[in-house]
Design goal:
Elements: H1 21-29, H2 46-51, E1 65-68, H3 70-88, H4 93-103, H5 108-114, H6 119-126, E2 156-158, E3 164-166, H7 167-179, H8 199-202, H9 209-226, E4 230-232, E5 241-244, E6 251-253, E7 260-262, H10 275-287, E8 299-301, E9 308-310, H11 353-397, H12 407-424, H13 426-432, H14 437-461, H15 468-489
Antiparallel strand pairs: 1-5, 2-3, 4-5, 6-7, 8-9
Length: 492
């Protein structure tokens, strides 16, 4: 599984940002086909179906968010800029207000609380040039501090920090930084001077409208990325901005490109693992990929007859043994799914460094194998989901009921993928979790969830052999286990 760890800035034209809300609805109405196996679809229409079966209506993943177009997000930003600018009560303060808002992550209440200080003190605290006239103080020398050329007095420009440079050097400085993707962070050229340059100082120095348009887009990007309630959609060339009331590591989905991601870190959604932990885990997996290659094979030897076996479904329940640990399935029991818990050596601290290194690798491989196995199970169950879709379509075409009559099969497959996706991300969480009572509780709930998911997977793959009530009851139990685990441990 590859995950882009870096935010990408779009260079699309500004017109691309002007997404029409009605146009979005028209696009959505254009087709009813779903991308089979797409994780984004796992969360749609499943929760209400399970709740009708009597499950707890509280969903720990419930999170209110709004998808804004470029123009709508511009209005949100400008309303806050005007609020702060009005409080500052100085001429041309909207430009300064933007930089102050960036420094405080657009938390207007914090800025208004600090307004008891003079504007100059606030600007000094934020390293912002607070004076609109940038040549009001005559330079002490007519020599440019960069190219060392002696120029006319009117050819020198200086910020309030009084570091004077010729206009040509200022232009070169701003041009290079904007071409490199810089927006808000352009500061004075003087060494060790952190005074930031407002946009009305930078814009006249940029040659050509194309570069000025780029600078405006980079400014918008920086304004959104520093806003504690806003996030740019990470979808390719997508202009949508997600707005929330309380920034948390929760699942959000773009209304335009259907990208699903974590609001806090903009990476793949990863509950119950927190953002910092999943970043460490993915980095570790990338670094140790060659070490772990051998366990990524699709085959294992049967523990009884040694015949090579390939798993072609998502369920880990083979006929009489467990795919993960190769142990007798009957010994797993219904209360504790032992093969999901790593049994650490309590005496490892007293052994040699080589033994400790081997134990550390063994532990990592234990969790990585289960992480990778559930990822592969998701892919295989996506094929099961597609087969169910085809089977339902065939039955409807043969007048063996309506789509509504067979909807429960469709929802069962989606819920299975939803639960397994959560289960996959419990393994990075468990790997980095410190030993103790809380970890034991987590492992117990993880084991309960894993057992019920395997029961659900077994029944979904053999749906024709089970009554509708039996399958729906298993859906209810699996979703209850998932919600219980998230409620207790997804608190970031």
């Amino acid at each position: 599984m590859s995950v882009d760890m870096n935010s990408q800035a779009s260079d699309s034209n500004e017109d691309d940002f002007g997404v029409n809300s009605e146009g979005e609805e028209d696009e959505d109405d254009g087709g009813d086909e779903e991308d089979q196996g797409d994780i984004a679809s796992y969360y749609e229409g499943v929760a209400s179906d399970v709740e009708q079966q009597g499950a707890d209506s509280f969903d720990p993943e419930e999170y209110l968010f709004t998808c804004l177009t470029y123009k709508e997000s511009q209005r949100v930003l400008m309303e806050e800029v005007n609020t702060v600018a009005a409080a500052l009560k100085v001429s041309g303060s909207s430009v300064i207000a933007k930089l102050i808002l960036v420094h405080f992550q657009w938390q207007v209440s914090q800025i208004l609380d600090r307004y008891v200080l003079p504007l100059s003190c606030i600007c000094l605290f934020c390293f912002i040039a607070a004076v609109k006239s940038f040549t009001s103080h005559p330079p002490q020398s007519l020599q440019c501090g960069v190219c060392l050329q002696v120029v006319r007095r009117d050819a020198l420009l200086a910020l309030p920090c009084q570091h004077s440079f010729c206009k040509a050097c200022w232009e070169q400085h701003c041009t290079v930084l904007v071409k490199d993707g810089m927006g808000v962070g352009i500061s004075c050229m003087a060494q060790d001077c952190s005074l930031q340059m407002p946009e009305d100082f930078v814009l006249p120095l940029l040659p050509g409208e194309e570069l000025k348009d780029k600078y405006r887009r980079y400014l918008f990007r920086d304004y959104v990325e520093t806003h504690f309630q806003l996030q740019l959609c990470p979808g390719a060339d997508c202009p949508i901005v997600i707005k929330v009331q309380e920034p948390r590591a929760r699942r959000v989905q773009c209304s335009r490109c259907s990208e699903v991601f974590c609001f806090k870190c903009r990476q793949m959604y990863h509950a119950p693992t927190d953002c910092a932990t999943i970043r460490k885990w993915l980095t570790k997996c990338a670094d140790d990929s060659e070490t772990a290659n051998y366990i990524s094979a699709h085959t294992k030897d049967c523990p009884k007859c040694n015949i090579c076996i390939e798993k072609n479904g998502g369920c880990n329940h083979m006929v009489n043994f467990c795919w993960m640990c190769l142990g007798d399935w009957k010994t797993h029991g219904s209360e504790y799914y032992e093969c999901s818990r790593y049994k650490e050596n309590p005496d490892i601290v007293n052994q040699s460094q080589q033994a400790q290194a081997r134990e550390a690798l063994k532990k990592y491989l234990f969790y990585f194998e289960r992480w990778e196995n559930h990822n592969k199970s998701l892919q295989l169950e996506a094929q099961t989901y597609q087969r169910i879709q085809e089977k339902i379509q065939e039955r409807v075409m043969n007048n063996l009921g309506t789509w509504i009559d067979w909807q429960y099969l469709h929802n069962a497959a989606k819920l299975l993928a939803k639960c397994r996706y959560t289960l996959q991300y419990t393994y990075p969480y468990a790997y980095y979790m410190e030993s103790g009572p809380r970890k034991k509780l987590f492992e117990y709930q993880q084991a309960q969830l894993e057992a019920e998911i395997e029961n659900l997977s077994w029944k979904v793959e053999r749906a024709d052999s089970y009554e509708r009530g039996d399958l729906e009851n298993q859906m209810h139990i699996a979703e209850q286990r998932r919600r219980t685990l998230l409620k207790d441990f997804h608190d970031t």
